[in-house]
TrEMBL record:
Transmembrane segments: 58-81, 93-115, 127-147, 153-183, 195-213, 233-259, 313-333, 339-356, 377-398, 413-434, 455-478
GO cellular component: fungal-type vacuole membrane; plasma membrane
Protein name per Swiss-Prot or TrEMBL: Nucleoside transporter-domain-containing protein
Highest taxon, organism lineage: Eukaryota
Membrane topology, as annotated: Multi-pass membrane protein
Protein localization: Membrane
Alphabetical list of InterPro entries matching this protein: Eqnu_transpt, MFS_trans_sf
Family, as annotated: Belongs to the SLC29A/ENT transporter (TC 2.A.57) family.
Molecular function GO terms recorded: nicotinamide riboside transmembrane transporter activity; nucleobase transmembrane transporter activity
Length: 490
């Protein structure tokens, strides 16, 4: 990642070795609304912000990679999964079922992970989740050597996806909560890591697809699934190794003085009389929570969900639009050039989206491009709806026969440019929402309450996954509206 930003209107200090209060009062951001500026000006002295050093940022970058690695590995392997159910009605709907199953399970488990976040040990959640994800990825790697019946393979992949969604949910809440304590710099690194892993996986898929296809002709994909198997083996195997590496990386993180300092600050900052307060103790990197006011804590997340409602809606809608068409609809777009192998074209389309997504998240490290206003971020999120009709104008091949006068957008290059723009706006808007929602310096809705920071970040993350789930379900509706068919069977 590039050097993390420092907002010009907020003063950051290195993490002290003991809890120290800062008398800095953040000034209003130039793009905040007038009423937000007034609230921000009334906020009392805000506790010191934690500036993550280079090691902390890189660790969160890697953890960000681990958070979205399972999802990206699954959707990038769509051609492999489809090749295993070729010749059945499952092929055309596999992607929609996979994305819906994963995101729905992710949403349900994340709801539990969010509600129990204050009671749980972040360290245990991270280590157990990473280990479980590594085991599940290994099973997918092993699947490339087996050839079960299409129905059995379909069930296996969906069950594996549910398992990865469950483990990923607890991993996500834990790493987002930890990153929020280090400030926007660590959060931006975490978000960029989520996009970077997608670029790496899709890049590996493109290279392995090119190597696997070799000199074969496009029509050979119907007769053999060997290229997809070889491609899937490579990135599922690499995913397994990477997740095991992340276990060691997080173990190193909890041993660093900076981590112990920020968690000790967190303990000191949480007053016993605050709403939903709890006392956090860190002992050898394993945190335990003693609840002090359980009745209030029950509504803690709900209160913050309402407080940051605009940010939460904006980040959710970003992914509602994205998952409504990507990948269930976009993977149905085929090249207008018959010499381009379908496997390669599909792999490149994933790469273009992920490059755009990573670029958008990286742009958030530039202070001059920051948008902290909740209303402006919501507007940008809503404008992404325009991408849906644009993709439907491309060269989509539906399984059902229907009259067509040809695609309005018949250029492969233009389709790929649309994918880059789609990814760029996805990464930029979602990252800014995740950075702004838990920021004491830029979110006046928090009113300087340091004890709300990690929960605000966790709730925003939950809304993000909620958007993924809703978008996946809507992909069936989008398909039905366009192909005039049963989206669950065709």
């Amino acid at each position: 990642m590039s050097e993390q930003h420092r907002a010009s209107e907020a003063i950051y200090h290195p993490i002290p070795q003991a809890p120290v209060a800062s008398n800095v009062i953040p000034t209003a951001s130039p793009d905040l609304d007038l009423d937000e500026e007034v609230v921000l000006a009334e906020v009392p002295a805000v506790l010191s912000h934690n500036l993550a050093d280079t090691r902390i940022r890189w660790i969160h970058f890697l953890l960000g990679c681990a958070v979205l690695l399972p999802w990206n590995a699954l959707i990038t392997a769509t051609p492999y999964f489809q090749s295993r159910v070729a010749g059945t009605s499952l092929k055309s709907v596999f992607s929609s079922y996979l994305s819906t199953t994963f995101t729905a399970a992710n949403f349900l488990f994340l709801a539990h992970a969010t509600v129990t976040a204050k009671k749980a040990s972040n360290t245990r959640r991270v280590l157990y989740s990473l280990t479980a994800l590594a085991a599940l990825c290994f099973l997918l790697t092993f699947s490339t050597y087996t050839h079960p019946a299409p129905g059995g393979f379909f069930a296996f992949v969906l069950l594996n996806a549910i398992g990865q969604a469950a483990a990923g949910s607890y991993l996500q809440t834990a790493v987002v909560a930890v990153a929020s304590l280090f400030g926007p710099a660590a959060m931006q690194a975490l978000m960029s890591g989520q996009a970077a892993v997608a670029v790496v996986i899709s890049g590996v898929q493109v290279l392995s697809a090119l190597a696997s296809v070799g000199s074969s002709k496009p029509e050979m994909i119907v007769a053999s699934s060997e290229p997809e198997e070889q491609s899937a083996f490579v990135f599922f195997g690499l995913s397994t190794v990477f997740l095991l590496v992340c276990v060691g990386v997080y173990t190193w993180l909890v041993s660093l003085p900076a981590y112990k300092a920020v968690t000790s600050q967190r303990s000191a900052r949480r007053p016993s009389t605050a709403e939903g307060a709890s006392l956090l103790h860190e002992e050898n990197g394993i945190d335990t929570v003693h609840e002090l006011r359980k009745p209030e804590q029950k509504n803690y997340a709900v209160r913050l969900a309402k407080t940051n409602g605009t940010f939460n809606l904006a980040v959710a809608y970003v992914f509602i639009v994205t998952l409504a068409v990507f990948p269930p609809i976009t993977i149905s777009v085929t090249s207008t050039n018959s010499s381009v192998h379908p496997l390669v074209f599909s792999a490149i389309h994933f790469l273009m989206f992920n490059v755009g997504d990573f670029t958008g998240r990286t742009l958030c490290s530039l202070p001059s491009l920051h948008v902290w206003s909740a209303r402006r971020l919501l507007t940008l999120s809503l404008l992404r709806t325009l991408f849906i009709p644009l993709f439907l104008m491309c060269n989509i091949q539906w399984s059902s026969s229907q009259s067509s006068s040809g695609p309005v957008i018949g250029s492969d290059a233009l389709f790929m440019l649309l994918m880059v723009a789609f990814g760029l706006t996805n990464g930029y808007v979602s990252s800014m929402c995740m950075m702004a929602a838990p920021s004491l310096a830029h979110n006046p809705r928090l009113q300087g309450r340091a004890e709300d920071v990690d929960v605000a970040a966790t709730v925003a993350s939950f809304c993000l996954v909620g958007g993924l789930a809703v978008g996946s379900i809507l992909s069936f509706a989008v398909r039905a509206a366009v192909c005039d068919c049963n989206p669950f069977t065709e």
